[in-house]
Design brief:
alpha/beta, Rossmann fold, seven-stranded parallel beta sheet, three-stranded antiparallel beta sheet, 10 helices, 16% strand
């Protein structure tokens, strides 16, 4: 915290300790015999240090312009997130903004996207760019690729996706194609666009949001997520020597809009299987930074994944018959 008064700017450690208050009082009164109550002061909360870089020439602190890159020590980290308007994507946006990342947010819901960008920028102070795009459409996906190529990004979160309401044979083929385009093609293309500049820069993080469904034969959705997990594991191994961290995040049931959009009956899902999106993302970022290639949240879902690898063939087939 800084205290601004007519005697100058007085630094003060955050918190209310007796020693801090005493030091502040002495500092304020060094200019004369005035009582503290006579000195007009305005106490302001200083923004988190990661939102600012030093302006060495003037001694003041300034915010870097969006997209500008100073020296490595002064660079403002930038993250691109797909599907950020709700659920896991929104939790990633909140977490990375709180860490000081400027954000480029990608969603097909342009109005909701712009509101989110305005809210995050106003509340946290980082810069947010709304980039409307439907990732099932190739030209719109290519616009996002072009944005990734404009400058080195520090973080890419491939989160966009949706569930399939009907069994494969009953589902509309265009819907099946959209699922493939959003959850496989877009992940591949955006990762390809980001990895080149990240490799050249010598650092970068990519999180591809998958699912525990990818560990089981669960129709085309499970197949999409199995590809995401396999691709992420390979990329983690291949690009680690270049300074990149690539991870597949494999959640189970998360309290988001995902299942509501599917109009799914969730009454049979026990409460212990549900995850909180913000905690999920905190744990995922911790796993990413510790070098994990796959992040499975909570002990209960780790147990599910472990069991899927040793389950009898008959049990696996029963699960597959219920999959979409």
């Amino acid at each position: 915290m800084h205290v601004h008064c007519d005697l100058g700017v007085c630094p003060r450690a955050a918190g209310r300790s007796p020693s801090g208050t005493s030091k502040l009082r002495r500092r304020l009164c060094e200019g004369g015999d005035r009582r503290l109550s006579d000195i007009p002061v305005v106490v302001r909360r200083r923004r988190a240090s990661w939102l600012w870089t030093a302006h060495r020439a003037s001694g003041h602190r300034r915010r870097l312009e969006f997209g500008s890159r100073g020296g490595d020590a002064d660079a403002v980290p930038i993250a691109l997130i797909t599907g950020p308007t709700a659920g896991i994507g929104l939790a990633f946006a909140r977490a990375l903004a709180a860490e000081g990342h400027d954000l480029v947010l990608v969603s097909r819901d342009s109005e909701r996207l712009q509101r989110l960008a305005d809210d995050v920028q106003g509340a946290v102070g980082v810069r947010c760019e709304a980039l409307p795009a439907d990732l099932s459409d190739l030209p719109q996906t290519q616009r996002v690729e072009a944005r990734l190529a404009q400058q080195p990004f520090d973080v890419l979160i491939n989160n966009a996706g949706f569930g399939l309401r009907r069994p494969f044979e009953a589902n509309d083929l265009d819907t099946e194609q959209r699922g493939f385009d959003v959850m496989v093609r877009a992940v591949m293309r955006l990762s390809h666009a980001a990895i080149g500049p990240m490799t050249e820069a010598g650092h970068g993080d990519i999180v591809n949001v998958s699912s525990v469904a990818g560990f089981l034969p669960r129709g085309s959705y499970g197949a999409h997520k199995a590809w995401v997990t396999s691709f992420s594991q390979w990329a983690s191994i291949h690009y680690r020597p270049h300074g990149l961290r690539v991870m597949s995040l494999c959640p189970g049931f998360v309290r988001t809009e995902f299942h509501q959009r599917m109009d799914a009956d969730l009454s049979g899902i026990p409460s212990w299987m549900w995850l909180d999106a913000d905690r999920l993302v905190r744990d995922a970022l911790s796993d990413l930074r510790s070098g994990k290639a796959v992040s499975v949240p909570s002990r209960r879902y780790k147990a599910v994944v472990a069991a899927s690898r040793v389950a009898p063939r008959g049990l696996v087939e029963r699960v597959a018959r219920r999959g979409r």
